[in-house]
């Protein structure tokens, strides 16, 4: 170490690093775990989190570090790479450090985004297992979610085919009288399959199901994945599993998984998912992987369970928020930390010269196409024009009382003058700033970042939420729109406002989290608008109800729960060495 990422693909670096990867029993010794706290699964292992938490309940928590980003280009700006680089840098400084990242979806892995395993020398290993199912959590979620749909559609068929008397006598079920036009759930699959966004099911005869419109979403968009990210234990999981709204009856009453008597079986599929899987960085620092919720519509974080375990095991624990600070950090700040009761010490704002140039008016960045030369040649003026976006996110983090550290995620095309402009602006906005070359050099390249984070962790902070739970839904949305996005106000469609008023009037929803739904490619609802726009209003068209997760999701713009596969997807370059069985081509 370090390897040369200019000559080696990520999967090749992982393959080399895996030769010395600790075994489950090595981790037991290294982390001071008891034999029954490690659950071996091949060359990986899960951690029995309840046993670890109970044994270490009196141990003080370590330093809690969150990683977020400025508004990204469609290529992403390297939050996972920065998270892993920071972990490696803190390791080089001799710190007891670890982290928790989200599990990647097979959709992006086989499409254009890749596995979110980091990159270069700031890489999570073993990359093949991480990229292709890990220890089965997403499969368990798919089985549990789709079982709920099986229960729903079978119930609808039987209620159509049987009289009330026959239903009671033959099936021991009461009639739920489900409204086929108000089915809230669809099916899920872990690929980007646009052909399944809108489907018709139940074609055929009387015994071939109930004919109706339906849909598929990508697996990580399932409410079950959102639930996994916020539960505290198996009991909490079981209770939430019974409260998921699957549909509404013809009187407008919610039909839940509990009503369908399927929640117990769903929890049986999910029982192993509550324990985090232990992987590591390419420099062998421990990194848990747990949960992977869709950041547009859910919390977009690794799990509360993972963070609770990490804060007991490590002196410095690093966690990552999905998307930019207006979405990922805001949900970390006002939802995840509120649910967990944990108080973070510092937030790292991942920044790239490339993204700042885009916000400064640079040409459109399109995934899968070569970058225009404005992004690969020095252009200080473009950087200066785009810095306002970074400063906006710094100010958002500071509103939480946290200490921001700007990480300039270095690319070989960045110049000294461009870097100097960013550093000066970040420090003027009240943030520490560090240049980090973790992709190229691993932990050695992240020492400046590690030192800035260590320093920030020692500074006293007064963490506070943006709003109290007593605040009504529409007031919360207005505050988030103004203080986090920079909008002048909020406009509600008649349907969304009527639903919001209904929710505000029902005490049942008072403790539901506000989970904003909008694009990650802009501070606004419009992904084409870059920088920090002024004089705009956030439109809310609907409010989704996730009753198991206890989320109310105000929707700004249209968000598809099923992404599409591109014309040049990653699966075209993935293969298996038939001599060794090793997977090649992952990135």
Automatic annotation (TrEMBL):
It catalyses: (6S)-5,6,7,8-tetrahydrofolate + formate + ATP = (6R)-10-formyltetrahydrofolate + ADP + phosphate. Its EC number is 6.3.4.3. It comes from the Bacteria. ATP binds at residues 73-80. GO terms for molecular function: ATP binding; formate-tetrahydrofolate ligase activity. Keywords: ATP-binding, Ligase, Nucleotide-binding, One-carbon metabolism. One of its GO terms (biological process) is tetrahydrofolate interconversion. It holds the Pfam family FTHFS. The keyword Cytoplasm does not apply. Pathway: One-carbon metabolism; tetrahydrofolate interconversion. It is an enzyme of class 6 (ligase). InterPro entries: Formate_THF_ligase, P-loop_NTPase. SUPFAM superfamilies: P-loop containing nucleoside triphosphate hydrolases. Belongs to the formate--tetrahydrofolate ligase family. NCBIfam families: PRK13507.1 (NF010032). This is Formate--tetrahydrofolate ligase. It comes from Desulfoglaeba alkanexedens ALDC. The gene is fhs.
């Amino acid at each position: 170490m370090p390897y040369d990422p200019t000559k080696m693909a990520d999967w090749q670096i992982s393959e080399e690093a895996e030769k010395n990867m600790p075994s489950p029993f090595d981790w037991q010794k290294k982390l001071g775990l008891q034999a029954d706290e490690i659950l071996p699964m091949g060359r990986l292992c899960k951690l029995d989190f309840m046993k670890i938490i109970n044994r270490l309940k009196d141990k003080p928590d370590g330093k809690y570090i969150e990683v977020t980003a400025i508004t990204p280009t469609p290529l992403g700006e390297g939050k996972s790479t920065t998270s892993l680089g920071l972990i490696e840098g803190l390791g080089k400084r001799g710190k007891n450090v670890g982290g928790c990242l989200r599990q990647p979806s097979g959709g992006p892995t086989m499409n254009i985004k890749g596995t979110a395993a980091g990159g270069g020398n700031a890489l999570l290993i073993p990359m093949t297992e991480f990229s292709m199912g890990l220890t089965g959590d997403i499969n368990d979620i798919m089985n549990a979610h789709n079982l709920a749909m099986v229960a729903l559609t079978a119930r609808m068929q039987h209620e159509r085919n049987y009289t009330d008397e026959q239903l009671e006598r033959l099936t021991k079920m009461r009639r739920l009288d489900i409204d086929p036009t108000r089915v809230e759930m669809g099916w899920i699959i872990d690929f980007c399959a646009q052909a399944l966004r809108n489907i018709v099911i139940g074609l055929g005869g009387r015994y071939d199901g109930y004919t109706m419109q339906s849909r598929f979403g990508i697996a990580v968009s399932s409410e079950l994945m959102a639930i996994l990210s916020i539960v505290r234990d198996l009991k909490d999981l079981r209770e939430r599993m019974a409260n998921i709204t699957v549909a509404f009856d013809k009187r407008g009453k919610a039909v839940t998984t509990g009503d369908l008597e399927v929640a117990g079986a769903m929890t049986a599929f999910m029982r192993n998912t509550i324990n985090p899987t232990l992987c590591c960085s390419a420099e062998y620092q421990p990194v848990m992987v747990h949960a992977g919720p869709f950041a547009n519509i859910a919390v977009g974080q690794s799990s509360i369970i993972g963070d609770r375990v990490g804060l007991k095991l490590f002196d410095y624990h690093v966690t990552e928020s999905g998307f930019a600070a207006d979405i990922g950090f805001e949900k970390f700040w006002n939802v995840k930390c509120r649910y967990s009761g944990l108080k973070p010490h510092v937030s790292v704002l991942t920044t790239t010269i490339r993204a700042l140039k885009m916000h400064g008016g640079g040409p459109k960045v399109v995934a899968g196409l070569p970058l225009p030369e404005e992004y690969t040649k020095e252009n200080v003026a473009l950087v200066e024009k785009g810095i306002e976006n970074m400063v906006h996110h710094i100010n958002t983090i500071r509103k939480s009382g946290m200490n921001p550290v700007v990480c300039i995620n270095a690319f070989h095309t960045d110049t000294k003058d461009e870097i100097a402009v960013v550093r000066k602006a970040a420090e003027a906005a009240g943030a520490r700033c560090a240049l980090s070359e973790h992709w190229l050099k691993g932990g050695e390249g992240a020492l400046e970042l590690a030192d800035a984070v260590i320093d920030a962790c020692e500074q006293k902070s007064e963490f506070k939420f943006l709003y109290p739970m007593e605040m009504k839904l529409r007031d919360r949305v207005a505050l988030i729109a103004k203080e986090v996005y920079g909008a002048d106000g909020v406009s509600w469609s008649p349907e969304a406002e009527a639903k919001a008023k209904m929710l505000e009037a029902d005490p049942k929803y008072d403790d539901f989290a506000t989970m904003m739904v909008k694009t990650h490619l802009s501070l606004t609802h419009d992904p084409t608008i870059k920088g920090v726009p002024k004089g705009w209003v956030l439109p809310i068209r609907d409010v989704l109800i996730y009753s198991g997760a206890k989320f109310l999701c105000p929707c700004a713009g249209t968000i598809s729960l099923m992404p599409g596969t591109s014309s040049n997807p990653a699966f075209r370059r993935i293969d298996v060495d038939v001599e060794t069985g090793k997977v090649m081509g992952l990135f």
